[in-house]
């Protein structure tokens, strides 16, 4: 068994460095850390022969000529369709809320205009001057208050 640096292991296996890290975390690839570098244990059966291919995963969605998704199983397709439907519903909900916010802004502006506009000329009624509490107290106690 040969221990190689993680990037070299990714190249030899024909997958991305992130995929190698995930496999090491799951325990499907033995690895150990030496200093700041991770080393992956590879034997001849794990290494690919020939040039390394670009890092892709079999479940990665690639658009096909007809607009469908290549490389997705039926469960993943159903999940994708469900996510798209939920996204459409949420988009509609957001649009409705944006319309409501716009209406509320209009109503707020109208209310502010009414509050800030000068009041109509109302007949000025004379208001009695308030008496101080101590004057009320002395007037009821028989004092000389007003």
Strand order of the largest sheet: 1-3-2
Uncertain residue ranges:
49-61
Distance between the termini: 110 Å
Mean pLDDT: 77
Give the overall silhouette.
elongated
Helix/strand-derived class? alpha+beta
Give the strand tally: 5
- The H-and-E topology, N to C, reads as EHHEEEEHH
Note the beta-strand portion: 5-15%
Rg, nearest Å: 39 Å
Descriptive keywords:
12% strand; two-stranded antiparallel sheet; alpha+beta; 146 residues
Question: What is the topology?
Answer:
Blueprint: E1 2-5, H1 6-13, H2 17-26, E2 31-34, E3 37-42, E4 62-63, E5 69-70, H3 74-116, H4 133-140
Antiparallel strand pairs: 1-3, 2-3, 4-5
Helix pairs in contact: 1-2
Structure commentary:
This protein is of the alpha+beta class and 146 residues long. Among the domains are: 2-48; 69-115. Helices cover 47% and strands 12% of the residues. The protein contains four helices and five strands. It has helices spanning 6-13, 17-26, 74-116, 133-140, and strands spanning 2-5, 31-34, 37-42, 62-63, 69-70. It has a three-stranded antiparallel β-sheet with strand order 1-3-2. A hairpin with a 5-residue loop joins strand 4 and strand 5. Helix 1 (6-13) packs across helix 2 (17-26). The radius of gyration is 39 Å and the shape is elongated. The N and C termini lie far apart (110 Å). Mean pLDDT is 77; it is low at 49-61.
Quick rundown:
With 146 residues, this protein is an alpha+beta fold. Among the domains are: 2-48; 69-115. The chain has helices at residues 6-13, 17-26, 74-116, 133-140, and strands at 2-5, 31-34, 37-42, 62-63, 69-70.
């Amino acid at each position: 068994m040969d221990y190689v640096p993680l990037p070299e292991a990714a190249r030899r296996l024909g997958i991305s460095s992130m995929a190698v890290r995930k496999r090491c975390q799951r325990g499907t690839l033995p690895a150990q850390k030496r200093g700041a570098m991770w080393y992956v244990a590879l034997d001849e059966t794990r290494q690919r022969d020939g040039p390394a291919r670009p890092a892709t995963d079999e479940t990665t969605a690639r658009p096909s000529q007809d607009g469908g998704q290549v490389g997705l199983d039926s469960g993943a397709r159903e999940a994708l369709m469900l996510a798209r439907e939920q996204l459409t519903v949420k988009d509609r909900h957001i649009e409705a809320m944006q319309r409501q916010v716009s209406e509320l802004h209009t109503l707020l502006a109208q209310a502010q205009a009414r509050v800030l506009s000068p009041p109509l000329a109302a007949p000025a009624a004379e208001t009695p001057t308030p008496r101080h509490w101590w004057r009320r107290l002395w007037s009821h106690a028989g004092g000389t208050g007003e």
